[in-house]
Amino acid sequence: MGTTEPKARRAVAAENPAPASGAGICCYIGPNIHGIIQTSTIYRGDKKAVLKSPAVALALARYPGIADLIVPGDHLTEDRVKAHTPGEALFKAYKALARQIK
User: How many other CB atoms sit within 10 Å of the CB of residue 91?
Assistant: First the structure.
């Protein structure tokens, strides 16, 4: 026997797959910058949209390196590790921003 799910519902599900975990969000994984941006701040949208948002645009005007440390939600776990692993590009970006804010 076939599936009991109506054909129309299967067709809709095939056209609109469920988003991946963390899709549609970004997270700032850099150091806290008092009054500017805080570590682990979550933003809705893809990275391009987040970087254009008013709050982030203001932070970027002062500290452009913030852009490198806003990562997509579906890469969050790996990118947090990379931000604290010597030799990784995210580690270098984190350290450069930390030096700039001191």
Answer: 15
**Is residue 35 predicted with pLDDT exceeding 90?**
yes
List C-alpha distances in Å: 19 to 3, 8, 48, 66, 82: 24, 20, 18, 26, 24
Strand-pairing partners, residue 37, are: 33
Q: In angstroms, rounded to a whole number, what is the distance separating the alpha carbons of residues 1 and 78?
A: 43
Report the predicted TM-score, pTM, of the whole model to 2 decimal places: 0.77
Edge to edge, what strands does the sheet with 70-72 contain?
42-44, 25-28, 70-72
φ and ψ at residue 76, rounded to 5 degrees: -55, -50
Quick one: pLDDT band at residue 102, thresholds 50, 70, 90? confident
Give the whole-angstrom CA distance, residue 21 versus residue 101: 32
